[in-house]
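Final report, closing paragraph on structural work. Over the funding period we assembled a curated collection of sequence-structure pairs, and we close with a single example.
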Amino acid sequence: MDADTLKKMLEKIDGYRQLAIDLQTSLVAIPALGPENDGGGEAEKAAFIESWMAEHIGFDSVEHVDAPDDRVPSGVRPNIVALMKGASADRRIWVMGHLDVVPPGEISLWETDPYVVVEKDGRLYGRGVEDNHHGFVTPLLALKAARELGVELPCDTGVILVSDEETGSRFGIGHLIGERPDLFSENDYILVPDSGVPDGSQIEVAEKSIYWLKVVVRGRQCHASEPGKGINAHRAGAHLITRLDRLYEIYDRRDEVFEPPISTFEPTKKEANVPNVNSIPGEDVFYMDMRVLPGIPLDDVHATIETMVREVEKQFGVTIELSSPQREDAAPATPVDAPVVTALSSAIREIYGVEAKPQGIGGGTVAAFFRRAGLPAVVWSRIDDTAHMPNEHTTIDFMLGDAKVFATLFARG
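Its predicted structure, as stored:
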């Protein structure tokens, strides 16, 4: 595509400010909560955005890959695949967003109604404006500009809108990839605008393994004045926590793609034991949150922990039970020099004047579903990072800027 045509697309996007605000207003007014969050699912929001896309863009094909779910009134969790045909089908560009949101949480912490968009100081406030409306409104604005100008993009370009991202993705991208792997190829550019930093400089290409561990230490309760009659589970648990610090030394490999560039092994939640000061607890429960660099098998980490547990059991005469509320091995990383990384970096530089760098993160994103399927995917957007918070907001200029980034990427193909 020539530079003059791209310039016209970018100028079109500048004129979409009120359109973007109106679209966000409509989306926020339709809560899309999964049944795990006492909601009725995403069907109403999916119907609205599908109607909006038909009116404002007119995709060449719109396909549903819905997941059955009898817990919601519609009986399905909608997953929409909308495609605009380009000059070539050798490669497709996909941008994936999610329809569902999290509950607002404690309402008293909100300064506004979470389901009514409020514009203030160049920002939009409301549940979902950033997570994840920002992520799919922006590519839709770019494609609307292309359609209004009658532009044929270099390659097929599509937007995927999925359900269930906030509660596991079993009914969302997990279902879609399982049912329709033929939609994707290794040559595709796959972007997930569901995380980012305020200056737009982070392109997420890798994630650490996540391992949450629940540790239950059992001893024998007794009066604190006669400790010899009991076994202090709290003391044994405390010794185990300090012993687990050795994991930092044992698994000390570094990977500078990540920030921090190391595996982390942190004790976090602590459950209450005895309610009174003068009893020695017979049971003590704590949790570990571990984020482990790719290439370090979680089985190895667990075996090391088991050895430490046996040592503490022997030393203090307690029994220790381990269980894992969450355990997810890292997906293969997207190479830092993958074509999608290079192309996106160039578009970000052109629009924002920022040198974006590929980075790894400690948390997990749905990009992992693509990566496990052998599909290089990146996570990027320019956001204020207020997801799940009270007073969630997105910056209007970031929405329009991200739409221009996507337009530039789509135009380059």
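Residues 129-148 form the longest helix (20 residues). The longest strand covers residues 88-98. We thank the funder for supporting this effort.
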